[in-house]
Structure formats: structure tokens, C-alpha cells
Amino acid sequence: MSNHALSHAAETIRSARHVIAFTGAGISVESGIAPFRGPGGLWSRFDPNLFDRNRFRREPEKSWELLYRLFYEGAAGRARPNAAHLALAEMEARGRLHAIITQNIDGLHHRAGSVNVLEYHGSTRTMTCMDCGLQVDAADVPMEKLPPRCAACGGVLKPDVVFFSEPIPDHVHRAALAEAKACDVCIVVGTSGEVMPAARIPRMAARHGAVVVEINVRESAYTYETSTIFLEGKAGKILPDLASEVIGK
Ligand SMILES: [Zn+2]
Questions:
Q1: Which residues, chain by chain, have CB under 5 Å from ion ligand 1?
Q2: 133 shares its domain with 207
Q3: Distance 131 CA to ligand 1 centre (A)
Q4: Ligand 1: distance of its center to the CA of 162 in Å?
Q5: What is the rounded distance in angstroms from the CA atom of residue 119 to the CA atom of residue 172?
Q6: pLDDT tens digits, one per residue of 102-118
Q7: Which residues form the Deacetylase sirtuin-type domain (predicted)?
Q8: Catalytic residue among 98, 109, 110, 121
């Protein structure tokens, strides 16, 4: 990646009126969160069927064993936002970024201080009781015994992530489409652009006239079709550099 490309991207963002970011697993890899897809990804090691809503209803303890290992214990439970998450949070705080649409369920954008975050596939930060619908903060849920249960009614708690047989929550989907149509710059970070329907968002932004700035370690489905500027490399390095130029430090 050339400095020229970075400056060009920064200038484009500085002169824009409505900037959004669309993020994927690549932005959280540097926080130690394993991606789901690709070689060595979680789906190559675990049974994705455990994340089917009907299966979860039938065998919650089995699904929960995996949910706990993947999202709440050890490295995943301790994951902190990295420089890329923080750079986006700072851009928002300085009025340079309107919204983040993320495919990630790790909650790291919120932890970094970002406020307007659309979690397209939900989040592990909260859970909802399957029986009474009570929503609770995951941090307040004891998980020594799985599945964790609702303090109000004893029903099984399910993390508020979108399972395979579930639709994208309608209000999130609508809000994401509205952002894609309204923005004039869409910063794509750490995503290969293959997971539907989320992957359509940058394409829709481009169709409505937005400039797409892509930050990825390798070429993606967007690079030649959708992106105007391609910044090749790690998000944890490029985004802070970009944010500094945009903010003007
Ligand atoms: Zn309940």
C-alpha cells in the first residue's frame, strides 16, 4: 500500500458528509478472536448445526458447551478492542464517522467506545430467555452450570446472536440499508464480502454513489468490483494511520 493511497483515502473521508464503516472478522483477528470461515476457522473445527435454533431448543446444553468455549471462556472472554476498533471509535467521537455496521458478534466496537453500532448478526454481550423473553447482560449471568438459566423464570438463556435458522432482526437490517443508501463513503474493514445478506451492504452503498475504501490483508470479492480505494494490510496498522490523517493530528 502506498502512502499516496492512504492520503487519498483520508482526503476522501475528510471531504465526505456521511461516512460509515462495514466491518468483519478481520478487524477482530488482532484481538485474538478466531474467524468462523476459512482455513483454521471455527467452522472447520466445530459443528455449525449446534447453532441452529431448533437444535438449540432440543439440546441447549450441547450448544451451550460450544457457545461457552467459543465466546465466553479463555481468550475470547478476555478479548480487548485493538487499535483498529479504537481508531473507528475516535473517528466517531470526532464527528468523522456516522455509523458502524458490523458482522461481528464479539461486542468489541462497543467496548472500544463506539456508540452507533449496528450488530448485523447480533451480539454475545446480551442474552434473552427463551421462555419469558427477559433480556440480560451476559456479564451478569453465572455460567458455572450450563445452560445458563433465567433468574426470573428458569428458562434457558440464549445469546442474542443470529443463529442459522433465524432472520436478521428487521430493525437492524432496515437501519443498515438506510445507512448504505445515505452514506457517501463506506469504509470496508476485514471482510471477504461473502456472507449474505450482509455482504450486499457495501455494494448497495456503491450503487448509490458512495466511494468504497477497502482495508483488507488480501484482495476480496469487493476489490475489483466495488472498492474505489484498496488499502492492503492489517487493520490495526492502517486504520490508526488513516484516522490520524482524517482527524489531523
Ligand atoms: Zn425467563
A1: 129, 131-132, 134, 150, 152-153, 155
A2: no
A3: 5
A4: 19
A5: 7
A6: 999 999 999 999 999 99
A7: 1-249
A8: 121
Q: Is 129 annotated as a binding residue?
A: yes
The stretch 23-49 carries a mean pLDDT of: 79
Residue 44 structural domain: 34-78+123-161
Taking phi first (over 0 means left), then psi (-120 to 50 degrees means alpha), and beta for anything else, what does residue 67 get? alpha
Domain boundary (102, 133, 161) is at: 161
Same domain, 15 and 137: no
Q: Which of 9-13, 65-69, 180-184 is predicted with the least confidence, judged by mean pLDDT?
A: 65-69
- Quick one: pLDDT at residue 1? 59
Q: Is 18 one of the annotated active-site residues of the chain? A: no
Q: Can you give 174-213 as a three-state secondary structure string?
A: HHHHHHHHHCCEEEEECCCCCCCCCCHHHHHHHHCCCEEE
Cα(133) to centroid(ligand 1), Å: 6
Kindly report the average pLDDT of the chain as a whole number: 92
Q: Are strands 122-129 and 135-137 parallel, antiparallel or unpaired?
A: antiparallel
Q: What is the CATH number of the domain that holds 66?
A: 3.30.1600.10
User: Rounded to an integer, what distance in angstroms lies between the CA atom of residue 138 and that of residue 118?
Assistant: 18
Residues 12 and 44 in one domain: no
Whether residues 19 and 39 fall in one domain: no
Domain count within the chain: 2
Give the pLDDT band of residue 39 (cuts 50, 70, 90). low
pLDDT at 43 over 70: no
Three cell numbers written together for 76: 475470547
pLDDT band at 3 (very low <50, low <70, confident <90, very high): confident
Verify that 132 and 243 share a domain, yes or no. Answer: no
Residue 153 marked as a ligand binder: yes
Same domain, 12 and 24: yes
Question: Any idea what the CATH number is for the domain that residue 1 is in?
Answer: 3.40.50.1220
Q: Percent of the chain, pLDDT > 90?
A: 78
